[in-house]
Amino acid sequence: MRIVIAEDSVLLREGLIHLLARSGHEVIDAVEDADALITAVTSHAPDITILDVRMPPGFRDEGVRAAVRLRQANPRMPVVVLSQYVESVYAAELLGENPAGVGYLLKDRVGDVAEFVSAIETVASGGTVIDPEVIRQLLARRALREKLTRLTAREQEVLALMAEGQSNRAIATRLVVSDAAVAKHINSIFSKLDLPPETDGHRRVIAVHYYLQRRTSPEAGLPAK
Amino acid sequence: MITSWWPWRSAAYIASGIVIGLVWMMIAILWIGFGLTAFVLVLGILVFSLLPLLGIGLAAVERARLRLMGYAPMPSPHRSPERSGLWAWLHLRWTEAATWRELAHGGLLSVMAMVDLIVFASLMAVAVSMVGLPLARYLQDTGGISDTIVIISTDAWQTDLATLPWPAIGAISAAALALVVLALWPLTHYARGRAMLANWLLAPPQLDADELMQSRSRIVSTFDSERRRIERDLHDGPQQQLTALLLTLGLARQSAPEGLRDLLSDAQAQAQTALHDLRNVVQGIHPSLLTDRGLIAAIEAMARRLPLDVEVQSDIEGPVSEQAEVMAYFVVSEGLTNVVRHSRSDEAMVEIRTVDGWLVVEVRDNGVGGADPTHGTGLVGITDRVAALGGSLTISSPGGGPTVLRVELPCGS
């Protein structure tokens, strides 16, 4: 894969380039700020863009805004946003109407090299990867938990993994059950939560996030700058 | 007015001022004269260098004398020297504005004492002789005084006391007495004016309430920007370094021989814990979401991390200063933390709105109440900081609940 990175910390930038190179990927450009990123992506048309949330000049949420801009310009552009903090507000903004090719992860995840690279590859191929920490924040709400008591413990686990963007196969592997069992759980979850019947992976993530978000942050959305 | 002490205090103030002013003037003239004549010797320099002593000594007396005019005892405006010794003391005094104000006050008092003396002595003489006319006439009649006393004398007309009828003498005397009594009124005001002047020159400089408020608000503001800077530094430094460490350990683990992998996993887990803990500390110092997405988003995100069902309602119109936003955030944070810790409540409601230029924040729970705001919580520090911004914090927590924490902050603070 041809990858563009935006990360202002030299240490991490070099580390990421090294890590991705070892996994057989090519970092074609590595920049320090959001403006340079937009230029780099426009000229290189990479397979995927990995970017930090906080970058110069403001050291605020430039990365989130840049990712949203990139995907507005090209909705098929896969982006992975890395951050020292994950906020469900940002997750909602990044997922938008189209979670295909969106990743939002805590920076800590680079520690597990194999899983991190696999997450990048999933996003590059149009998948969705949301940090478990975001899902934990969303599920932590008592009001939501009460509504989720309709689900069995196993179904709640499956719901959390679905929200992270995991496929049926991945969920089955993680929970050590059969694919058929996962499919059964998912059907049950969808009917208990009155979600539209499951179709493909992306709409499933949207449905689950919509369900989780609307009870936590009714006004989630990118405010005008 | 005549029945109060003020006329007498005023008279005493002016009279003692005359004595002190004249004595001081004489000492000062002698001092300077001696300094000038001894100037050829080194002694003259010493005499001049001790000149501030004159003003300082007088000022100490004068500050005490101001109490006669109802002023509260006031401290000296002088600072204490950092080092001991005459030289350090002298050096400090020569460089203090207060010293020269005191010396100027000495000069002013001398001049005024002379003017006072002339005016009061002559007025007093006229008053006493007018009021005393009946006595003079009595003494004339009984032969005690043989001289002619001339009351009014012009080229064309002359009146002798001995020829004046008694009713006229009585009337003049009574009128003079009335004038003396009436004169006490301007005297009181004159003395008050003099005291104000002395107070202005001699009292230690005081920050007025506005200035004090502003300086407190500046301190809070500095405090906030310092917190933001620390948060940035921790984010850009240790947090990124720990993340890079995690990455390096991950890479090492991949290619490490079997025997090393467990050890490297442990090292990674430790780095992860350190990063996690640091992250929590940094979030507590300054929440980045507050800067990035504003107060409401930050409060909602904070609420999501608590084991509490929090409803956030907001109605904010017009601009709210960053300082007020940061303050409101920490108030809500402290309020919700207390709900979790003490209220035995599982629900809370946060209401944030602007009312006529004030940011009003309320944190309300459905708990047991009985919260003691003075008891060891972080609320004491927060109360001080809210006050420093010109706001107020109130807690209502009757036994049985609910507890309501309410903060009002000026939007522009």
Question: Can you offer a commentary on this structure?
Answer:
The complex is a heterodimer of chains A (225) and B (413). Chain A has 225 residues and is α/β, with parallel strands linked by helices. Chain A has two domains: 2-131, Response regulator (Rossmann fold), CATH 3.40.50; 136-213, Arc Repressor Mutant, subunit A (Orthogonal Bundle). Chain A contains eleven helices and six strands. In chain A, strands 2-1-3-4-5-6 form a six-stranded parallel sheet, sandwiched between helices. In chain A, helix 1 links the parallel strand 1 (2-6) and strand 2 (26-31). In chain A, 46% of the residues are buried. Mean pLDDT of chain A is 86; it is low at 215-225. Chain B is α+β, with helices and mostly antiparallel strands. Chain B has three domains: 1-206, no CATH class; 212-285; 293-410, 2-Layer Sandwich (Heat Shock Protein 90). Chain B has helices at 6-37, 42-49, 51-65, 86-95, 97-131, 133-141, 166-202, 209-255, 258-285, 288-304, 322-342, 379-388; strands at 150-153, 158-160, 309-315, 347-355, 358-365, 392-396, 404-410. A five-stranded mixed sheet of chain B has the order 3-4-5-7-6, covered by helices on one side. The radius of gyration of chain B is 39 Å and the shape is elongated. The model of chain B has no long low-confidence stretch (mean pLDDT 85). At the A-B interface, helix 1 and helix 5 of A face helix 8, helix 9 and helix 10 of B.
